[in-house]
Write a structure and sequence with these properties.
- The chain is of the alpha/beta class.
- The strands form three sheets. A six-stranded mixed β-sheet has the order 6-9-10-3-11-12. It has a four-stranded antiparallel β-sheet with strand order 2-1-4-5, with no helix packed on it.
- Helix 1 runs antiparallel to helix 2, helix 1 packs parallel to helix 5 and helix 6 runs parallel beside helix 9.
- It is elongated.
Amino acid sequence: MKQYMKYIRPYKWYFILGPLCMITEVIGDVLLPYLTSLIINVGAANRDISYIIKMGGLMAVASILMMLAGIGGSYFGVKASASFAADLRRDVFHQIQKFSFSNIDSFSTGSLITRLTNDITQIQNLVLMMLRMLLRSPGMLIGAIIMAFTMNAKLALVILIIVPVLATAVGLIIYYAFPRFEGMQRKLDTLNSRIQEALTNVRVIKSFVREDYEEEKFKAANEDLKDTSMNAFKLMICQQPVITIAMNVATLSVVWFGGSQIIVGDMPVGNLTAFITYITQILMSLMMLSMGLLQSSRAVASAKRINEVLNAQIDITDDVAQAKEKTVTRGKVEFKNVSFRYYKENHEQVLENLQFVIEPGQTVGIIGSTGSGKSTLVQMIPRLYDPDEGEVLVDDVNVKDYTLQHLRNSVAMVLQKNILFSGTILENMEWGDEKASLEQIIESCQAAQAHNFVESFPDQYETELGQGGVNVSGGQKQRLCIARALLKKPKILILDDSTSAVDTATESKIRESFYTTLKDTTKIIIAQRITSVMDADQIIVLDEGKIVGIGKHAELLSTCEAYGEIYYSQKDKEESV
């Protein structure tokens, strides 16, 4: 709980005023039955109308004060819990933004969505319930017990029998409910992952006519969640009947023994009426406490999952940076004996002993078979991953010695999977430079061969893009992503197979523009087509995570067997077409 105190402090007055309002309401709840007994025992018994009016007026004033206190308590409770949850959600989202690729690999997207939404909502509900019931339930319980024993100690002994039985039953329910709520949240993770995957890939599903298959997968996850939820809620369902039985037994006992005392003249009728109300209040307060405890067991399970995100050890930070003020000025890249594996416990290396130098302003191609480690290699330059062994240097400085902001601001990367965001084309372009003028944006789009098709849209640069850029073609999406990267004016530009959906003529024009718009920028191009990199200053050939060749196109044809195989296989395919 100490971790959550910082979310309480900014709203401490809401956390104080809310319970105070609840105490006012509790005082009214405890006094009203007593005033009712006085009306019956004194006013009605003596037929004293003025006394009845006096007590009735006092009850009316108390009711109004209770109403105002109830409204205030609810307002402060909602304000405090909503603010608490908003700040917690902000920090969890901020923590996720700091995650390295390795951290992200540890959590599924669906799980992170569940933690940011459902889990935080569970904690918010607990905070709200605590503010509304933390003092109200114990206050009503203590006040009602005191009043009950004050009015009739013998009759109040019923409470000493009922309450322990009820507390034991509720305790057992909570004990068995907690692990079931944890399981329910995990099943919700799975369902959210299924939904996210199906909606993201809906076009693939439709093109392969796999709707029935996906519906079965969703049905299985949905049924699994339903069954797990039912196992958890069955225990919660048991709570209400247990409390109802206890309440009815207690009321019946009070009426039975109280009625006997009234008959022999040991207790006034009004006291029995008030006593029944107090017994009801005691049991209702116990019910509210048990509801709070059940909600807390569910919230504790959610808090545990939130803490897993907040306490995750982020492996790529600025903590080790030795040159925090230094920026990239030239764009030289060097790999010194770099090795890497995704899973540290797995000894199988994705990259092994990579060693090469890329001089500032050079155009370098990286080519190799699928799974040879090309994308992983370039992701180490902006520190999306860190090597297990060796060093990655930029401008002769270890990338770990730069701050992430300085390093990544100097690197523009167009990933294999081209991502555009909901919003206009103009807004997407501003990711490259939020201060760029329209003229600069148009210039970048022209260099990426995107300007002509953007101009063909009715709204041109104000055209709204759907989520992920679903309303533009694959080639158009790639060119917009390249334009966004060019607008950044980086020292190092990395294109990770980002022209695969573009025809060779357009790709050639894009490469030509690099020599004018990015003359001094180091350009690293990962490609499947040798024609995309054959004019590069040097080409790096990867095979199973190892460098098997470095040089120019003509040199590699005669010295690198792997390169020759790729080249001639593609050449034969073109000739057959």
